[in-house]
Each structure stands twice: as C-alpha cells, then as structure tokens.
Amino acid sequence: MKHSNWLYIYLLLLISLVPTLCVGTPTYNCSLRGSGDLGVVVERAKGSVLIVETTTHTRLAKIPNLGDLSHASVVYSRDQRYAYIFGRDGGLTKLDILCGKIIKRVMQAGNSVGGAISQDGRLIAVSNYTPGGVKVFDATSLELLADIPTRSKVVGLVDAPGQRFVFSLFDAGEIWVADMHQPRSPKITKFKGIGRQPYDALISPDGRYYIAGLFGEDGLALLDLWHLDARRILPNYGKGEVKKPVYKMPHLEGWAMASDYTFVPAIGQHAVLVIDQQWQALKRIPVYGQPVFVMARPDGRFVWVNFAFPNNDTVQVIDVMSLNIVKTLKPGKAVLHMEFTPRGEQVWISVRDDDRIKVYDTETFAEVATLAADKPSGIFFTARAHKIGL
Amino acid sequence: MKKLFTLLFFLPALSVYAEDISPQRQSELLHLLRHDCGACHGMTLQGGLGSPLLPHTLAIFPKAFLLNTILDGRAGTAMPPWRNFLTPSEAEWLLEQMLNGIKEIKNK
User: Fold this and answer.
1) Cis peptide bond N-terminal to A342, omega within 30
2) Using CB atoms within 10 A of its CB, is residue A293 exposed (0-12), middle (13-18) or buried (19+)?
3) HSE-up of A76 (CA within 13 Å, CB side)?
4) Three-state secondary structure readout of chain B
5) In angstroms, rounded to a whole number, what is the distance separating the alpha carbons of residues A112 and A67?
6) Is A105 within 8 Å of A63 (Cβ atoms)?
7) Nearest Cα residue in chain B from A376
8) Which of A170, A199, A245 sits opposite B81 (nearest CB)?
9) Which of A134, A250, A368, B66 has a 20 to 30 A CA-CA distance from A170?
10) In this structure, what are the phi and psi dihedrals at residue B98, rounded to the nearest 5 degrees?
11) Min Cα–Cα distance to chain B from A182, Å
C-alpha cells in the first residue's frame, strides 16, 4: 500500500515536469495571457525574431532559424495570436507568439519582400521578386491556393476591403487588384501605365486610396478603389532639381496620413512632401536626409521620420499643425525602423549598429527604455492585426 | 615599347595592394557591403531590388564596369554612386571579395 502511494506521487511529479521539459525557454511557454501588448522584432543578421511586450518593455522570447531575414515583414492573424513572417529568401513562417513556437514554415519563392493578410483573415498573400508574382496561402495551413505570376518584381502588396489584394509591379509600372472571393481563382483587374518604377505603396486607413510611390519619375500613382480609377498626383514635384542619390528605398504604409494631409518621402530629395485632401502638393518640408519611413503617430498630431544611409543616425519629428520640424533625435547608428504603441504614447526605434531598441516617450521625447537586440530591423506590434493594409 | 605597354596593362592589378587597407577598415567595408549595399542587394548578396552580387553573377561583367558601377552608380537604375564613401582602391578590394565569395556572409 505504502509502496504504491509513493509510486503514485512520483509519477504525478514526473508528469507535472513534462510541460517545462518541452519548452526551449524555461520562462516562456503557452501561458494564458493577452497578446494585445505584444510584438515581434526582426534580428536581421541572425535570422531570428524577438517576441516583446510593450507594457513592460521586455523581451519574452527569441525564435531562431527563420532563414534570411535581412529584409522581413510581418502581419498578424485576426486573433492577434499568430505572426506571419515574410523573409527575404522566400520563407513564410507562421509563428505562435503566445507559445513562442513555429507552427509552420514554407519556402515559397526565391526572393521575397513582404505580404498581407486578407480582410477575412483566411488568406496570406506574399509579394515576390523572384519569380515575380504573388502567391496566396491558406492562413491556417499555409496550403498554396493561388499563384499570380507578374513577370515583374511585386511591391506594395496590401489587403483591401472587398476581400482584395492590391499590389504594384516595379518593372512593368502597373497596379493590379486581385479579387479573392474565390481564393483558388483570383479575378485580376490591371491598371497599366501608372508610372515608372513604383517602389512601394500604401493604402489609406479606410481602405479607399492606394498610393504608389514612383522611383522612375517625380510623382505618385493614386488608385481610388471606390471608383477604380488611377491617375498621377504630384507630377514633377522635383521641379527639375538634380536628384540626390538614394541609398535605401523609402517605405510607404498607411500611417502616412495624419489630420487632413498625406506625408510621403520625396525620392532623391531630402524632403517630406505634404499632400492636401485634393491630392495637391501643399508643402515641401526639408529634412535631414533621404526619408525612409514617414510615420504619423496614431493620433495624427506628429509625424516621425527616419533616413537612409548615410544620414541614418537621426530621427526628426514634424508637427502636423505647423508642418515644421519640432525635434531632431539621435538614437544611434543605423536607425532602421520605428513603431508606435497602439495609442501612440511611446515609439520603439530599432538602432541596428548599436544592437539596441530604444523606446521614446512621444510627448516628452525622453528615452524611457532600451532593449538589447542583435542588428534589429523591423518592429511589428499586434495592433496591426486590426488595421486595413497592415 | 611593347614590353612597356604590357607592363602598363598590368599596373591596375597592382593598385589593389598599393594602398594598405587596415583590418579595421576591411571590417568596415564588409559591414557597408552587408548592411548598406545589402539594403537593396540583400544582406547575403543574393539580390533584392538590386541584382545578386554573387561570384557567378558578377563574373560575366568586366571588372572596370563593376568598379565604375560601385563608384559612380548606374544612371536610369536605382544604383547610387558610392564614391563619397570609399576610395577606388577600397572599391577594388571590396569587388575582389565579392568575386571570390565572402565567407563571412556565406556562412550566415
């Protein structure tokens, strides 16, 4: 009797240890917690990502073996639990951020630049350079559902209302809209001759306007998704000035819109262009270098700007009311990305060559926290799960 | 005269060694290649918006053309000039590394 009691206790103890033994990081496992204050930071050299928490400014886990993340992008499932990571080498990884576990990983192309999740959250689209095109996967299983070849590098892939994906063709100078109501047979509408070498695009937060920045000419392409018509805006914004060299392509996202304006990087000029509600050029704000990210704080009151090499140690803040620069910060060497907390009280900034992430108070501009990260690049918070285009 | 001409022909090859590139500078140049050239060419040099910079993809071009591309960019494309950030000798050294394949990057 006594002997079997001890055996029972021993077995119970052994079973209770099993969950701890199964997990790589002893302090982080599938705990019952919210994901709303979580995020992912890309460690571009190591091919790993960090799972971070914004409330406490902490690193929760490091997930290795994600391939080539030297350019990487992330979208979130509609339940904010899974991060879909799009790697440079064509890798697509579904990561459970509550368990710190890779659920599934596929190599879907030779060279890839980003992706999107559909309006209903059931489809993941990936934007590929090689072979040029878009591939669409089931968000649960990562089964390939559709392949849309373009014979051109695809950029600026976003989701749009109406279960659509919209994207641009860098080499061909076109914008395509894919209706995905029948995922295995996308219906494509093509807009040709929209401008030379669209390098990226944004969709307005309400999902109506798709704006592609052009590299091959001064101007942007505007596609109104309600009327389905495309036209050029801000033609000749350079006014014939000699273009400065561009050492890193700017990136456009929906946060370009603040108050009544749209803020976009000029190409080949050290300037941010302000566009009014009639899509006319309102102001050209001279800034420290070639802008890469021009991001409005969630309330739209300020716009934060970072820059390309060689001016990439600096961040500037534009006051949307005055349209002037009100602050210049020096976070460190190679500021690659910025991400605001969902309501914008803080911003996380990746400083690649300092191997750090710096967190700033967006009201006082004080540095409030810093986290170690290996060559950090993109920072993606889970609030993106509920934003059109992100 | 012919001998002199032949000698002159080989002088450019010697210039790589004429300027001493310190280990620290070499490290800086490789960092530039990986991270800043890598912004378009990919950190592993397998390409992105820019073309791949791997030994077999570069070998088909004349060296002078490649050097020119590094220093002065290529008009009509997204490739900018890097003349302000490295000397011609340093560009040549970096090019040699690319043509031979860079272990430090390959091992990633």
Assistant:
1) no
2) buried
3) 23
4) CHHHHHHHHHHHHHHHHHCCCCHHHHHHHHHHHHHHHHHHHCCCCCCCCCCCCCHHHHCCCCHHHHHHHHHHCCCCCCCCCCCCCCCHHHHHHHHHHHHHCCHHHHCC
5) 12
6) no
7) B35
8) A245
9) B66
10) -65, -40
11) 31
A247 with B73: Cβ contact below 8 A: no
A168 contacts A174 by C-beta, under 8 angstroms: yes
* pTM given for the model: 0.89
The full length of chain B comes to 108
Interface test mutation site (partner A, options B28, B43, B70, B102, max chain A beta carbons within 10 A): B43
Question: Residue B16 — φ and ψ, nearest 5°?
Answer: -60, -35
Residues 6+ apart with CB under 8 A from A84: A74, A75, A76, A77, A92, A93, A94, A95, A115, A117, A124, A139
- CA-based nearest distance B84→chain A, Å: 10
Helix (H, G, I), strand (E, B) or coil at A254: helix
Q: Which parts of chain A fold into alpha helices (H)?
A: 2-22
Quick check: B43 and A130 CB within 8 A? Answer: no
- Integer Cα distance of A72 and A199 in angstroms: 16
pLDDT tens-place values along chain A, 390 residues long: 566 787 777 677 666 655 544 444 444 678 799 999 999 999 999 999 999 999 999 999 999 999 999 999 999 999 999 999 999 999 999 999 999 999 999 999 888 889 999 999 999 999 999 899 999 999 999 999 999 999 999 999 999 999 999 999 999 999 999 999 999 999 999 999 999 999 999 999 999 999 999 999 999 999 999 999 999 999 989 888 888 999 999 999 878 998 899 999 999 999 999 999 999 999 999 999 999 999 999 999 999 999 999 999 999 999 999 999 999 999 999 999 999 999 999 999 999 999 999 999 999 999 999 999 999 999 999 999 999 999
State how far the Cα of B45 lies from the Cα of A79, in Å rounded to an integer. 36
Contacting residues of A for B73, CB less than 8 Å apart = 245
Is residue A269 within 8 A of residue A243, CB to CB? The reply is yes
Among the partner-chain residues B43, B49, B85, the one whose CB lies closest to the CB of A70 is B43
Compute the distance between CA of residue A316 and CA of residue A287 in angstroms, rounded to an integer: 8
- Which residues are A379's β-sheet partners? A41
Take residue A374 and report the two structure tokens written for it: 């290996």
